[in-house]
Amino acid sequence: MFVRNCWYVIAWEHEVPADGFFARVVLEEPIVVFRTAAGHWVALEDRCCHRSAPLSKGRREGDCLRCGYHGLKFDATGQCIEIPGQERIPRDMRVRSYPVVLHNKWVFVWMGDPALADRGMLPDNFSNEHPDWRYLPGYLHYDTDYLLICDNLLDFSHLSYVHEKTLGGSVAIAQSQAQIEPVTAPGQRGLTVTRRVPDVPPPPYYSKLRTFAGHVDRWFIYDFLLPGTLLMRSGGRPVGARPDDMSNAVQLHSCQTLTPETATTTHYFFQQAHSAQLDDPVFTQAIYDNLILAFNEDRDMITAQAGNLRRTPHARQVAIAADAALMQFRRLLERAVIAESQERAA
Amino acid sequence: MFVRNCWYVIAWEHEVPADGFFARVVLEEPIVVFRTAAGHWVALEDRCCHRSAPLSKGRREGDCLRCGYHGLKFDATGQCIEIPGQERIPRDMRVRSYPVVLHNKWVFVWMGDPALADRGMLPDNFSNEHPDWRYLPGYLHYDTDYLLICDNLLDFSHLSYVHEKTLGGSVAIAQSQAQIEPVTAPGQRGLTVTRRVPDVPPPPYYSKLRTFAGHVDRWFIYDFLLPGTLLMRSGGRPVGARPDDMSNAVQLHSCQTLTPETATTTHYFFQQAHSAQLDDPVFTQAIYDNLILAFNEDRDMITAQAGNLRRTPHARQVAIAADAALMQFRRLLERAVIAESQERAA
Amino acid sequence: MFVRNCWYVIAWEHEVPADGFFARVVLEEPIVVFRTAAGHWVALEDRCCHRSAPLSKGRREGDCLRCGYHGLKFDATGQCIEIPGQERIPRDMRVRSYPVVLHNKWVFVWMGDPALADRGMLPDNFSNEHPDWRYLPGYLHYDTDYLLICDNLLDFSHLSYVHEKTLGGSVAIAQSQAQIEPVTAPGQRGLTVTRRVPDVPPPPYYSKLRTFAGHVDRWFIYDFLLPGTLLMRSGGRPVGARPDDMSNAVQLHSCQTLTPETATTTHYFFQQAHSAQLDDPVFTQAIYDNLILAFNEDRDMITAQAGNLRRTPHARQVAIAADAALMQFRRLLERAVIAESQERAA
Question: What single-letter DSSP state applies at residue B105?
Fold first, then answer.
């Protein structure tokens, strides 16, 4: 169940070498991305239209790619401009070109109708590239459907259990109630989820970030956007501190996004940025290390869950109140998929 | 082709930690077993009824299991008794509970209609727990259908070839005739197979057990019971010794059982017990080591056989006289499966 | 898409031990080959007709094979001649026997109707066994359909790109035109492909073979025969040398053949022989090492191509002029397959 008319992250900017290219499979389609000498981003089908060899097994020649099998050369629009040993080039000798844009360190490709590609739909992943924020970039590969990871990110009650020793630290997170509202961010479809957890012990990983004498008030406020992007402000401050007093608080902003590789595998790009101790790389590393630890806890659980679902795809599932956000999101997604198929049919 | 209304071994008792739990897949179903503080055995579906996560990825709390994903807590009957952050618990918020019983070191689960679970159908695996017998417990995992292993255990002519250098030692085993009769053990369906092999060299592994001056008379007398349990007395004595004179004999009792994990993978639990030299752990170890060696010979052959069957599932097979027991057993099994499906339909 | 009424190489002669046997899967069928004491080659179905165990897991007894599972013994015609413990042997207790012949170091099996097996259809792989030629034998396993490798061998334009640093060395190869004609070799179906590439730098690997002061004229002249055999004369001589003056030339003869293991995996047997420096094993080794290097370049590319085809089996492909030979060959193959199926129906 893929929405196609939207932006998917294919790579962190730094993954794409300046004079080379980078290949990933997105929504079952092999894609190769690079940046021209003039700095324009290019995303092409990573499959030569001659005999289906990946262009990424070939080489870059200026702003063109040459297939490494029989030497066909393609320009940045995907048009073949050279066939060794042959004068005439058939008009349909071209590979698909995808709209592509760099936006705050993430390279996005548009997987649907190119005519509908709209930069206004890019998520506000500002902390990926902002002078007041620091982070280390993260990537994980999942051997599961991306929807299971969406589910996970839409219900933070799991912090109390999956992340008891990392991000969680208290059952109060699971016992608290999240508010769910439609997103108001322009150009976006999704949900805004707000969860406040007053008067709890600081979570285990805070010990690396700041010393608290007693309990803290915690908050998690995020947009979860189609197709699978989380943008979150979260943090904790001493119990009793005024909401606008951040002088003794931990404050974080996180950008996370899921890109289906196939129906059963997923790319996960993420970071968690901080806006204090900007010049302390040890601090930045500590946040990153904790995040990787925690996200591996998620992956371990979700992979086990996927194993059970693979074994019995139609196992009975009973919903609980905490499923409200994930169920609303799955309905949003389903409606978007149906709407797209109706548009294509029209 | 699984019979469901019967007991399957899910674990050796020692595999289940006293204060924890143990999980295995049986007949395609994930199951977690544990023992309450009061000593009662519990077997629950290892799949949370909320979002299908394995309960075995969570933790034990007293006689309950708490799911490690969103914290739902289940009592020993499988009923959910706590949903974090939610007062009301839906009545159908429960996981399946299986009849389970410990019987002579094997933990059995009943995979069919719980109302039919009958301790009278447990096999007489006495040597698993008897003061006059010693053994080391064995377990092997097979990447094949359990029926191929049943076939193997129902025709000992293979000892002459597969186990030439371990359990066999003479072609006379294959040349001897087995007698096959219906089992008379109460509550059991299956076959009693008797094979006597007079005047043969002691098999290679006897050299670790006892010194024989010349040839021996060997015997193998076993019940092979639905769904896949072998209970066997076997041994060898000097040629000419009276059948009731065990003073110079090797005497063994073996309990072996097959539990289908899936249609193509199998759990194999086994032991071979001796009733002499009870206080000699080196002797016990020697029997175990030889058995592991021999059972790996079987697994190697049966896995190769399964490879050929996977390649050409409908390859022609021609029966021989030695197939009598395995063919009778497969018919028993087939009739039991058909009978169960008719009972369910009625 | 397999042609069956033809010879396929199952092994290099040296792979089959004199007093043992050798097993490979050919066209999805497991086969075991050996040579009798009298020197006759035997190829039998490697699957006991009793319970499908591979005979190659058993042992050789004289000119017979005994199954290692239950001890059935088969003679060199595939007839069962002994069933342990059983007097009568059913007439249909036999495994399939394949026509098999050793021809210049390659062991060929005939996979179709044995009545049609015709030694006149064996390819002229003379350099495999000729006093004037030297080589080291090669074998590679592919996880791809054999047709993709046929494609590769039928269009040498790929030498310029896949083998730029080994066999190629110049884009002129891709820019040159190949002549394609029906083969005239007796008993053969296939194409003769001739490619001449004048006035190019010697390819990188020539540096190990001979020193050239300047450019060379290169030639590649080969038959590509059903089901997938390449027989090639190739070489290079100083620009300006007369075609019949080989005194300063590199001259090679190559025999290569593809045997489908399954629809998606392939055995590749090959050699590249030289007729100069016959007594210099370092020279022979250098040619072999370069060939292995180059053939791994092919395998790497073709495996990546197969990955794309697996992902999207019906991806659009646009033909170019260089595809002429491979398209003609695929048509030959298709016609042969259709003809065979019509013959079977008739």
Answer: T
Report how far residue A195's alpha carbon sits from residue A178's, in angstroms, rounded to the nearest whole number: 5
Give me the residue label for tokens 């010794």.
Answer: B241
Q: Specify the pTM.
A: 0.95
> What backbone phi and psi angles, to 5 degrees, belong to C251?
-125, 130
Residue C195, exposed/middle/buried by CB under 10 A (0-12, 13-18, 19+)? buried
Q: Which residue has the tokens 């996004």?
A: A257
> What residues contact residue C346 under an 8 Å CB cut-off, 6+ apart?
none
pLDDT tens figures, B188-232: 999 999 999 999 999 998 988 889 999 999 999 999 999 999 999
Q: In this predicted model, what pLDDT tens digit does every residue of C12-22 receive, in sequence order?
A: 999 999 999 99
Give Rg (Cα) of chain A: 22
User: In angstroms, rounded to a whole number, what is the distance separating the alpha carbons of residues A220 and A236?
Assistant: 9
Q: Are strands B41-45 and B190-200 parallel, antiparallel or unpaired?
A: unpaired
- Would the CB atoms of B70 and A174 count as touching at under 8 Å? yes
The percent of residues in chain B predicted with pLDDT above 90, rounded, is 90
Q: Which residues of A touch B50 (CB under 8 A)?
A: 317-320, 323
Distance CA C238, CA C250 (A): 10
Query: C75: which strand partners?
Result: none
**In whole angstroms, what is the distance from residue C32 CA to residue C25 CA?**
9
Per-position DSSP letters for C83-95, written without gaps between them: BTTBS---TT-B-
CB A108 within 8 A of CB A6: no
Chain C residues touching residue A30 (CB < 8 angstroms)? 308, 311
Residue A305 at interface with chain B, using a CB cutoff of 8 Å? yes
* Neighbour count for residue C338 (Cβ, 10 Å): 10
Q: What is the DSSP letter of A300?
A: H
Which domains does chain B possess? Answer: 7-121 (2.102.10.10), 126-342 (3.90.380.10)
Nearest to A230 by CA among A110, A144, A306, A325: A325
Tens digit of each residue's pLDDT (9 = 90 or more) over B286-305: 999 999 999 999 999 999 99
For chain C, percent of residues with pLDDT exceeding 70: 100
Q: Could you report how far apart the first and last alpha carbons of chain C are, in Å?
A: 20
Q: Where are the beta strands (DSSP E) in chain C?
A: 7-12, 22-26, 29-35, 41-45, 59-61, 64-66, 73-74, 80-82, 97-98, 100-103, 106-110, 138-142, 178-182, 190-200, 216-225, 229-238, 250-262, 265-274
- The answer for residues whose C-beta is within 8 angstroms of residue A342's C-beta and 6 or more apart is none
Cis-peptide into C198, omega within 30 deg: no
Chain C residue numbers touching A86 (CB-CB < 8 A): 320-322
C-alpha triplet C157, C159, C161: angle, nearest 5°? 90
